[in-house]
Amino acid sequence: MQSFSAGKALSDAFEIFKARFVPMAILTVVYYAVLAVLFGTIGLTMLTPLLAGAATAEPANPGALMASMGGGIILLYLVIYALNFWQQGAMCRLTSDRHDGSLGDAVSAGLHSILPLFGAAIIAFVVLFVGGLAVGLVAGIAGSESPALAFILGLAALVGAIFVALRFSMLLPAIAIEGIRNPLTAMGRSWAMTRGHVLKLFLVFLIVFGVMAVIGFTLVTLTIGGAAAGAGVPDTGAIIAFGLAMLALGLSVGIYLMSVVGAIHRQLGGESVTEVEATFA
Which of 58, 160, 184, 242 is the most buried (most CB within 10 A)? Predict the structure, then answer.
């Protein structure tokens, strides 16, 4: 088992952040730009028939319009997930000390990460769906007998979900950095790497996500929060400010979070990929 220091992971992440900021910032800006184009295109596609219908005696029905675009909406979500997986894979590759750190290498690694990450996401969805049904059924039966028991079971399920998430927290590096293409093998590799380090990993991610939550809440409050609190619609200026704030968040804490993942992998990824042992042990 590899040794792991939470403090070293956080400090090493700052070094990765500084060393690889420019290419990671480029990837972040490209990601947000493509997302903006996608949502802008979809918005225009939906808005055009609505405006055309408003000029007639029979305005377009938004519900019917959404139903007619069902296939397109599904395709849009798939494209967004693929784009997200590409960006995550490319960003993670840039945190590695095993590769040259070039933008071209990162882009290629990101593209090769899309299908394995889709596979892992499908596996996780099926497991969570089945597990959620089982926990809900047991909690429902227990709740009819004892609300306290139902609460305990729910709390245990939450702790279990966090534990599993931490054990799979090295899934992305296993795919993007180590080049594992089989989702199950990558999941097993992550499970092996994180063995014995769950509490320290929990501390690291708690600190980073806590900081992200505070900063994100502050940015939302300062931009569109006032309109949301008053049940109003944010004006154009507030929406633009919110978009720029989210971009700034991605270019700072977002890049640092990925640097943390890479820093953790530098400590835990010492074994050869061929030594993926005792999977899920």
Answer: 242
Q: Cα 23 from chain centroid?
A: 19
Determine the length of the chain: 281
| Annotated domain spans of the chain | 6-53+60-275
Query: Which long-range contacts does 39-47 make (Cβ < 8 Å, 24+ apart)?
Result: 42/72, 42/76, 45/69, 45/72
Phi, psi values for residue 77, rounded to 5° = -60, -40
pLDDT single digits (tens) 190-230: 999 999 999 999 999 999 999 989 988 888 888 877 655 55
Rounded CA separation 137/39 (Å)? 38
- Give every residue of the chain whose pLDDT is below 50, as ranges: 272-281
* pTM reported for the whole predicted model: 0.80
96-120 residue pLDDT tens: 999 988 999 999 999 999 999 999 9
Calpha distance 140→147 (Å, rounded): 9
Please give the C-alpha separations between residue 78 and each of 84, 103, 106, 139, 176, in angstroms, as whole numbers. Answer: 10, 24, 21, 33, 20
The whole-angstrom separation of Cα 201 and Cα 4 is: 9
Q: Which of 73, 86, 70, 74 is nearest to 34 (CA)?
A: 86
Contact 38, 79 (CB under 8 A): yes
